[in-house]
Amino acid sequence: MLELLHNMDWVLPLRSPALTQVANGFTWLGYATFILFALPIGYWVWNKGTFFRLLVLIAVTAWLNALLKDIFQDPRPPLELRLDDRVGDSYGLPSGHAQIAVVMWLWLAYEVRRAWFWVVCALICLGVCLSRLYLAAHDVEDVLVGALLGGATLLLFARVKDWAFWREANLGWPLGAALLVTAASLALWPGQAPDYVPLLAGQLVGVSLGLRLEQRTLGFGIAVPAWRRLLAGVLGAVGFVLLQKLLKLLGANLELPPLYWQGLRGLLMGLFVTLLMPWLLVKARLLSARQREPVAVADVAGA
């Protein structure tokens, strides 16, 4: 059994140039480059409530994944077997791709609640998990544990009935919780915490604060023609790319300690997604204002 969980020699005969391209495509869906790009666009032009919840959920599960990786310190498959050179020297157990894929795609399916959408999301989730094995970035144990943790996280969050807490409770609650978890993580983390731990905390604070301010001052909605939503998504994507370039330039000039800078960077990204870009898109008349969408599980795509 242990041999089956850890030995990856079986994957070598399955490889071909075409399958490698497919695997790289699926595995890209699990990297931050895609996730940090896709979630804001969904927030702006698909469903604000659904994608706000996803932002929170993915931040929490990514923090948990990073903590467990550094606790277990389980090595990845041998370097000579790997076809993914983006993993660096990080540990393998649990697989972040598998964990986040289960959380992201199955939560979307849970919110949309359409049979065909469940099938599509399940296939994407399976493709991401299998791609990590094909590329030998993880062994079977890594992927299984990551998927199970993602499923457990989903079950836990599915029991949260009142997401309005995030926009109605005193802002000190999410702010204090994020700061407390960050401080405890940095103090008790086994070894040095990854720099994306304060980034995730900053994002949670930023999206919570931005959502609160946006709901009270703007209340944007998507009750506009489809071509406007499409254009809003394109402009939002361009704006997000420009934001990353601006943050890179700002980080080089501020010369803050890395952990402080990552926290500030996450805060600015959260505010951009939930406050600044919606305001710009409403001012450009691509989205509507004063159409408040309650942050509740009953939201469905396009509601």
From TrEMBL:
Residues 52-158 form the Phosphatidic acid phosphatase type 2/haloperoxidase domain. The chain crosses the membrane at residues 28-46, 51-71, 91-108, 115-137, 143-160, 172-190, 196-214, 226-247, 259-282. Pfam families: PAP2. GO terms for molecular function: undecaprenyl-diphosphatase activity. Its EC number is 3.6.1.27. This is undecaprenyl-diphosphate phosphatase. Coiled coil: none annotated. It catalyses: di-trans,octa-cis-undecaprenyl diphosphate + H2O = di-trans,octa-cis-undecaprenyl phosphate + phosphate + H(+). Keywords: Membrane, Transmembrane, Transmembrane helix. It comes from Pseudomonas cavernae.
